[in-house]
Specification:
Blueprint lengths: L10 E3 L2 H4 L12 H9 L10 H14 L4 E5 L2 H4 L9 H16 L3 E5 L7 H4 L7 H12 L1
Parallel strand pairs: 1-2, 2-3
Length: about 140
């Protein structure tokens, strides 16, 4: 029987907007997808897979099935609801809890800082074609 090398990382992935749900909870600011999907009238990102509320169960399942790595997408607008300015401590605390739970379960986390969910305030000003958005992203990444 063949086995994977001991240092092999068997992983999964999340994309904040597609997994978290809770688009209007915890101080999260809007992203362009919110308005776009609402206008489409077909589906919304709430509850998605409800990772925002169910991350302990999701990470427990990872442990049960041998998933020892996860790509965690952080929602920029959960940290900086307007893309810049004040920091939403509730959002910061959420990600700290997720990271602590993953560590407790021996799951290595790889972070994605942006997954096509620019805060709406910045998206409306030209998204990444506007230098101000690039500067705001750098500030967010540094934080």
């Amino acid at each position: 029987m063949k086995t994977l090398p001991e240092d092999f990382i068997f992983g999964g992935a999340t994309a904040a907007y597609q997994a978290e749900g809770a688009t209007k909870e915890g101080g999260k600011g809007p992203v362009a997808w919110d308005e776009y999907l609402e206008k489409q009238g077909r589906f919304l990102a709430d509850p998605a897979s409800d990772f925002y509320h169910k991350y302990p169960e999701d990470l427990e399942l990872c442990s049960m099935f041998g998933v020892n790595g996860i790509r965690l997408s952080i929602a920029w607008s959960r940290i900086f609801p307007e893309g810049t300015g004040w920091i939403n401590q509730e959002g910061v605390d959420f990600y700290h809890k997720v990271l602590a739970e993953a560590e407790r379960r021996g799951i290595k986390v790889f972070v994605t800082l942006h997954h096509f969910d620019t805060p709406k305030a910045l998206f409306d000003q030209g998204d990444f074609l506007n230098r101000d958005t690039i500067d705001a992203f750098v500030d967010y990444a540094r934080f």
